[in-house]
Amino acid sequence: MKFSDQFESRFSEMLTHYPTKRSVLVPTLLYAQDEVGYLNHHVIHEIAQRLDLTDLEVSNVISYYSMLTTKPRGKFNVQVCTNIACMLRGGEEILDHCEKKLGIGHKGTTPDGMFSLEEVECIGACSWAPAVQVNYDFHENLTVEKMDKVLDEYKKNRAIG
Amino acid sequence: MILVSHPDEVKVVSKRFGKGATDIDRYLELDGYKAVQKALGMQPDAIVNLVKDSGLRGRGGAGFNTGMKWSFVPKQSSKPKYILCNGDESEPGTCKDRLIFEHDPHAVIEGVVIAGIATGSHAGYIYVRGEYRYLLEIMQKAIKDAYARGFLGKNIFDSGYDFDVYWHGGAGAYEVGEESALMESLEGKRGIPRIRPPFPAVVGLWGGPTVINNAETLASVPHIILGGAEWFAKLGPPKNGGTRLFCLSGHLNRPGVYELPMGYNLKKMIYEVGGGIPNGRALKAVVPGGSSCPILTSAEIDVSMDFDSMVKAGSMLGSGGLVVVDDTTCMVKFALRIMKFYQHESCGWCIPCREGTDWLKKTLARFHAGGGVKKDIDNIQYLSENMLGRTFCPLGDAAAMPTISIVKKFRKEFEEHLEGRPCPFEKAGVVEQLPVMAGTD
What we know:
The structure holds two protein chains of two kinds.
Chain A: H1 5-15, H2 25-36, H3 41-50, H4 55-62, E1 76-81, H5 84-88, H6 91-102, E2 115-120, E3 132-134, E4 137-139, H7 144-155
Parallel strand pairs in A: 1-2
Antiparallel strand pairs in A: 1-3, 3-4
Chain B: H1 24-29, H2 34-40, H3 44-53, H4 66-71, E1 82-87, H5 97-103, H6 105-119, E2 123-128, H7 133-148, E3 164-169, H8 179-186, E4 210-214, H9 215-227, H10 229-234, E5 243-250, E6 256-261, E7 264-265, H11 266-273, E8 283-287, E9 296-297, E10 304-305, H12 307-312, E11 321-326, H13 331-345, H14 351-371, H15 374-387, H16 395-409, H17 411-416
Parallel strand pairs in B: 1-2, 1-4, 2-3, 5-11
Antiparallel strand pairs in B: 5-6, 7-10, 8-9, 8-11
């Protein structure tokens, strides 16, 4: 199992932050997932070994956190917030539109592996609702038309802010 | 995300927003790191008393006096003491810590160091929720820059005092915002709450005494050190010092995050600061401080937005997230969406919360779909009331409180859904465009 140099230097740095090795687990899993795409059993085993944990202990932590996944997602993970502030300003319509346009439902992935879709809980963009996160990028004050453009831009593989 | 402003604002925590203060030199120009240097020359007890007298209360939602919380940390401890900044902002309706991290990360660092000096701690952690990756990166840079200047690490500001600050990223969990679950998460575990007592101030991170404060609370501290307790206390009503970042969302003409004095009138906040309800509609209800607060009806909004007045009004000031609801909204659906959230976020550790939120979600969903019977209305109340105060941590209360208030205050709407009747508020396929602030693309 090989991670990038950036991952390794961050991992070594994080180990110096805490009195116990295990404390690096949650951020490490997320950084590993960012590189590999999902937390397969190789990743789980590698991280467990490094932190003197069992694979089961690591899996147990993974299942708690909503951003961590053991299944592959699309290159662009479209996370649509439908919690109250977004719901009141059209979040559900944004989700409907994404479902239709991408042809997938909640936690689905397009056959080409380009997009996956998730209905998510509050992402902290309430005053700029409705909002969507694509991977880590926020898209706010959306309308169905704007969302359409956002998806088209990603399709062209151009990440927009 | 854009910054908004209103003439009634009193900018304390937000005074450096939009001024490039993520840059350490710019932060220094804007009085940055002056407070920590002043604190280094003060007796720890004097700092604690100053913060206590300022009336600063926890901005995460519980509203506990911050100086009082610090005073619970034992002076002598065989284990290291820690400061933990709670930046796991995830209460629906709340988006203020995000602005602090984005515009003024050094203020949070400074607040953490001052809390450390006051309690005799030498290490602090800043926990940033996983979804806020770009903010974690801003914080990582800010910490690195502060170390490079000798503001963190060994012998800070040549004072002889050592203090380390570390960043920590989450990975998606509302429950982790609860302070004991936050510590579990930082220790690399599932975010399951701990039983109390012992309280974190005595037994916290890795068994050491730990102060846990919200990011906005800590960002307020440097201003109190420089401006004084009396100045800060007088910004708000008695025992409710300072200002708050109020996050205005929902059916408003001018949603946004505004910094207003504690005790600002809720009605004014909705109609003047937030610009009122769009499309000529009427106000139906408002969630005053994040989704866990009991809802207020349009007849209950002439209240002062401070911790004590909100309790008197039958609700809570909470995390400062106001969600405004107009008269076209179905309150059954609104209650369902809130419950769906708490059911999703329940950690499953204690039975009343795990089972209660699930049953309530299922009942509300069936009810909204027209499959409700009259007895369900009382059952929703009964289930919620039985969760209240009977769960391991406040998540169960957070799910119960809004539900009880919605059923009580909007019972008629529940009755209108009975006997297979379609939701009277559903207008299939019609989404009216709400006004959006200019230049928000």
